[in-house]
Design brief:
This protein has 188 residues and is α/β, with parallel strands linked by helices. It is 44% helix and 23% strand. The protein has one domain: Vaccinia Virus protein VP39 (Rossmann fold, 3-Layer(aba) Sandwich), CATH 3.40.50. Strand 2, helix 5 and strand 3 form a beta-alpha-beta unit.
């Protein structure tokens, strides 16, 4: 069963679902799961790597609104980020969203050491997943969760990432069979 969203957000999500293939958006099931994870863990600070048109960010930001949290989201393409920003504004979450544009690796490297995240969603360049993982580790809280998309649909490209998580004793993880597959890792 879906969570209840306000009417405007429900309409925007439905519109964005029509362009899922054009913008490489996550399936609705993944959005609902992440929304629940954030609420369950009472996450206050989330990082999204790969904003696209804001579809996944809306699921994250709506949950963060209920926890009093904030979303930092990174998008390489300025045109996609512009669309996402409009969607965040329309759905009333832009006040808790910090959109950053450029290379995710470069942006994460520029984060201050005090910048910490409870929840991280990875859905960008598949071959860079392992680099994202290594770069974000110093920025994770003690009980952080990482969700990475396209784990089964792009298995070969993300294998080094899966291997890195598997080899890291700080993380417990599972691959969840939703369309495209997600890896859910918990630090703790």
């Amino acid at each position: 069963m879906d969570i209840l969203m306000d009417e405007t957000t429900s309409k925007i999500l439905a519109e964005l679902e029509k362009t899922q293939k054009d913008f490489w958006n996550i399936p609705r099931k993944t959005g609902v799961l992440m929304n629940m994870f954030i609420k369950m863990m009472n996450a206050k600070s989330a990082l999204e790597i790969g904003t696209s048109n804001g579809y996944s960010g809306l699921w994250l930001a709506k949950a963060l609104k209920t926890t009093g949290g904030k979303l930092t989201t990174i998008e390489y393409y300025d045109k996609r980020q512009s669309i996402a920003i409009e969607n965040f504004k329309t759905c009333g979450v832009f006040d808790i969203v910090r959109p950053l544009q450029g290379s995710a690796c470069d942006i994460i490297k520029s984060f201050d050491a005090s910048e910490k995240f409870d929840f991280v969603f990875i859905d960008a360049n598949k071959r860079e997943y392992v680099e994202y993982f290594n770069l974000i580790k110093p920025h994770l809280t003690d009980k952080a969760m990482i969700v990475a998309d396209n784990i089964t649909s792009h298995a070969e490209k993300v294998q080094t990432f899966i291997d890195a998580v598997d080899a890291d004793d700080e993380f417990q993880y599972e691959i969840v069979e939703v369309p495209g597959g997600i890896l859910v890792a918990y630090r703790g």
